[in-house]
Write a structure and sequence with these properties.
Blueprint lengths: L8 H43 L98 E3 L5 E3 L14 H13 L4 H12 L5 H14 L1 H13 L2 E11 L2 E9 L4 E5 L4 H6 L9 E4 L3 H4 L6 E4 L1 H14 L5 H21 L7 H21 L11 H11 L1 H4 L13 H17 L5 H19 L4 H9 L13
Parallel strand pairs: 3-6, 6-7
Antiparallel strand pairs: 1-2, 3-4, 4-5
């Protein structure tokens, strides 16, 4: 017997109530454990996602990949051999018609009779075989002393030659060495001390690091007019690439902004906000198509411009979702459609067409929108006030901003990615890695002004050294006054 038969009715009711409370307690504990398990699983998934981030599925640079490299599909064999392809342009030296110097070599004696040749000249030549060698002569500084004389006239008055105001009283280095110093520090990312050593080894001059550092503000002031024109032309252009990234100044994080086109570049420091971007003076007045990433807090503040969202960024996001949900096809489908649309835009551009023929892209546009619809059915929005998953946020962005992601299919002047702005920002990252961070915002702004000038000049085919030489001699390069884009 269990002993329950001996209990009274009141005791049985009490026991039953205690059992009900125990069941409820177990249910509550079970719900709490399920919630804890769900949080733990979500945390594990988030940690796995972070651990799996690389340059192929996020905005992380390749240098930060570490041991986790992106899985890249193998490229099918092209059937071509390695190395230079038949018909490709060669890069070897060719004979020049008018060499800078010639050296005549004659045989010392006759190969027939053995007679010794003496004092032969070009008149004695019966023909020659030429070989050419291109080299640089030994470089050495040349000290030039300019003497401003005083002349006594027959009337007894003495007149002195006027010394220009920009000629210093003390011995100085000329524009060529100044150009070389700025070129090494700004364009080649050589640290100040190493630049001083390099100049000394090459030329025999012995500039100090302080003198080299003092050249940068002077050079920046000389190119200020060119920078104002660059900013004006960027504002008036048809297409403008804009981006922002972090940089290090005196050990603190600051934001670098870039605005550029195929022919012009402007780099500046400002907070990552609309007020900060406005202070640089380019975006507030731009009325064309702005190519940028999906940082809407900043770029939505420019409604007078049309927008092209960077497809390279979203393709990396789609790659991450494809890896996270390997059994779902929507991410790979949208990614493939975008890649094919970019390919068709490049094909039409290379063919010289004014726009992409509709039959080239109709299928891929349908696949894009179908992929977004399928993804949203699998990842619907939860409670409006709750935080949504990365997949849901991505899909809603692809749906709500489809016109901004696909604008490049309507206008071949527009690029599908913002790689151009990222390329123009890369020298700043290189500078920090090689020479270390700038120690002041003033120094960083000076370096960025010179880099903007040199980037714009080299985009126009002007060598960086020549552009700096023009600036240091008082006639800086300026861009042609024509609308960009």
């Amino acid at each position: 017997m269990s002993g329950l038969e001996s209990l009274s009715r009141e005791e049985l009711l009490t026991l039953l109530a205690m059992s009900d409370r125990t069941v409820e307690l177990v249910k509550t504990q079970n719900i709490e454990l399920q919630a804890s398990l769900a949080r733990a699983l979500a945390r594990i998934a988030e940690l796995e996602r972070r651990a799996g981030r690389n340059s192929g599925n996020s905005s992380q640079p390749p240098s930060a990949d570490g041991f986790v490299k992106p899985d890249k599909p193998k490229t099918p064999p092209s059937g071509r051999r390695r190395g230079k392809q038949p018909g490709a342009r060669g890069g070897g030296l060719a004979l020049v018609e008018h060499p800078d110097a010639t050296v005549d070599q004659f045989p010392p004696s006759c190969g027939g009779c053995g007679a010794v040749f003496r004092a032969l000249t070009a008149k004695d030549s019966a023909g020659f075989t030429a070989r050419q060698c291109t080299d640089i002569p030994p470089v050495s500084v040349v000290v030039t002393e300019t003497r401003w004389h005083r002349v006594r006239c027959g009337c007894g008055h003495t007149t002195a030659a006027i010394i220009p105001a920009d000629v210093p009283d003390n011995p100085c280095y000329g524009p060529q060495i100044q150009t070389l110093a700025v070129y090494l520090v700004v364009f080649q990312h050589v640290p100040l001390e190493r630049a001083a050593v390099l100049i000394a080894d090459l030329t025999g001059a012995a500039p100090s690091t302080g003198w080299i550092a003092s050249l940068l503000p002077r050079a920046a002031s000389l190119v200020a007019g060119s920078l104002r024109l660059i900013k004006a032309l960027l504002t008036l252009g048809h297409v403008l690439h804009a981006d922002e990234t972090t940089t290090n100044i005196a050990g603190k994080r600051r934001y670098l902004h870039a605005a550029c086109t195929e022919k012009l570049t402007f780099l500046g420091l400002a907070p990552r906000s609309r007020a900060g971007a406005d202070s640089l003076g380019v975006l507030p007045h731009f009325r064309g198509t702005l190519v940028h990433d999906a940082y809407f807090q900043l770029y939505d503040g420019y409604p007078n411009a049309s927008h092209q969202l960077c497809c390279a960024h979203v393709i990396r996001e789609l790659t991450a979702q494809h890896e996270l949900f390997a059994d779902q096809v929507w991410a790979g489908q949208i990614r493939w459609a975008l890649a094919q649309l970019i390919k068709q835009a490049r094909r039409a551009r290379e063919a010289g067409l004014p726009r992409i023929p509709p039959q080239w892209i109709g299928l891929y546009l349908r696949i894009y929108h179908q992929g977004v619809a399928v993804g949203l059915r699998l990842h619907p929005r939860t409670h409006p006030s709750a935080a949504q998953s990365d997949a849901t946020n991505l899909l809603e962005r692809l749906r709500d901003h489809a016109s901004s992601y696909l604008r490049f299919t309507d206008d071949l002047h527009i690029e599908a990615t913002n790689n151009r702005a990222e390329r123009d920002q890369r020298p700043v990252k290189t500078q920090v890695k090689i020479s270390g961070c700038h120690q002041s915002e003033t120094g960083a702004a000076t370096w960025l002004a010179l880099r903007s000038y040199l980037s714009s000049a080299t985009k126009h085919g002007v060598p960086a050294f020549e552009a700096l030489r023009l600036a240091m001699t008082g006639t800086p390069w300026t861009p042609p006054i024509a609308l960009e884009g």
